[in-house]
Automatic annotation (TrEMBL):
Keywords of the record: NADP, Oxidoreductase, Rhamnose metabolism
Pathway note: Carbohydrate degradation; L-rhamnose degradation
The organism's taxonomic lineage, starting at the top: Bacteria, Pseudomonadati, Pseudomonadota, Alphaproteobacteria, Rhodospirillales
UniProt name for this protein: L-rhamnose 1-dehydrogenase (NAD(P)(+))
Native species: Niveispirillum lacus
GO molecular function: oxidoreductase activity, acting on the CH-OH group of donors, NAD or NADP as acceptor; quinone binding
Catalytic activity annotation: L-rhamnofuranose + NAD(+) = L-rhamnono-1,4-lactone + NADH + H(+); L-rhamnofuranose + NADP(+) = L-rhamnono-1,4-lactone + NADPH + H(+)
Domain of life: Bacteria
């Protein structure tokens, strides 16, 4: 069953990691996909090639989500290529681990601009296109389990992810009258470029795995199904919700 047949999906930060996996899974379910990326054109084109191999169409659009104009450019490129926007996935994010007391100002500012401001501008641009089309749509933001719990080396990151989740709650109210659903997905520890250096410490990785009831860290592909569900008509009455995808880490208090 192809849950996104005939739909156009836009995904930010989709040249690798969670974004790339979600892009490919959406294509597997029948969507044409526009991916945004900030660097690594070769990686972006590889994702486009994977989507083409599934029989779907894809484009890659370079842009820094922290720049408000990138949002307009991304949406315009998708509309030119595919005729509209049905689903938008706000995924682009950074997490340069750093201690709190000596946190550089530029690290805080850049993290906020990419993770929170970028999600805001991109969501706004996609929502305006959906409103003008008049047929509703779905917006999904990749938040994080960090929206719910703290991290000593992530004091700049966790507030942005809480903000992304809050953005989806407010947008669910603001955009509901237009038939646009807005939800967030909260991944646990997923093995991506963001945390590969941090988890290179074998002892820390073993400790993290031991805290997860399912007994393993997440893979980017684990995010595909939850996003496809929220994007599809199976979730037609789901908006303002948050879906934890963490292997049970959050509920394990022992």
């Amino acid at each position: 069953m192809r849950l996104l047949e005939g739909k156009t999906v836009l995904i930010t930060g989709a040249s690798r990691g969670i974004g790339a996996a979600v892009a490919v899974e959406c294509a597997r379910h029948g969507a044409n996909v526009a991916i945004n990326y900030a660097a690594s054109p070769a990686a972006a084109e590889d994702v486009v090639a994977q989507i083409a191999a599934l029989g779907q169409k894809a484009i890659a659009v370079k842009g820094d989500v922290a720049d408000p104009s990138a949002a307009q450019d991304f949406v315009k490129a998708a509309v030119a290529a595919f005729g509209g926007v049905d689903v938008f996935v706000s995924n682009a994010g950074i997490c340069p681990f750093h201690s709190f007391l000596d946190m550089p100002v530029e690290v805080v500012d850049r993290t906020i601009k990419v993770n929170l401001n970028g999600a805001y501008y991109m969501t706004q641009a996609a929502a305006n296109q959906m409103k003008d089309q008049g047929r509703g749509g779905a917006i999904i933001a990749i938040s994080s389990i960090s929206a719910l719990v703290g991290g000593g080396m992530q004091t700049h990151y966790t507030p942005t992810k809480a903000g992304v989740h809050s953005l989806m709650q407010s947008c669910a109210i603001a955009l509901g009258p237009y038939g646009i659903r807005c939800n967030s997905v909260l991944p646990g520890t997923i093995l991506t470029d963001i945390n590969k250096d941090d988890l290179a410490d074998v002892a820390k990785r073993t400790y993290m795995e031991g805290r997860i009831p399912l007994g393993r860290l997440g893979q980017p592909e684990d995010m595909g199904g939850p996003v496809v569900f929220l994007a599809s008509d199976l979730a037609r009455y789901v908006t303002g919700a948050a879906l934890l995808v963490d292997g049970g880490a959050f509920v394990n208090l022992q």
